[in-house]
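pls read this protein:
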Amino acid sequence: MKPIIFTALSCLVLAGCGATPITPAQQAENAACSSQAGATYQQNTVDQEARTAQNGQRYSATPNHVFDAETMGAQHVYQSQLQQCEDNGNNNGQPVVNGVPVVTPHIITN
């Protein structure tokens, strides 16, 4: 078989493997996960809202590396929370067995 025919046949076979469309329920869950993670990000970076940028200074008055590290940490928390929400559903990461949340273990005393 000629390589061009094999390539065209492979492309036609792979063309049928397109992504499935997102349902409205999945879009709503993605929006809920995004808003929940966004609220956490805003809460973690509230101290940076009043900080002014100090570009072009050799030694700035505020610790830029500390703010950079806080921003990167908050972005990591945002991405992790978003991924966990999409993987586990919008249940704040609680374990679910057969669609029912698992009861939190606790000690029962008599």
Notes: Residues 64-88 form the longest helix (25 residues). The radius of gyration is 24 Å. Helices lie at 3-15, 24-44, 64-88. DSSP finds three helices and two strands in the chain.
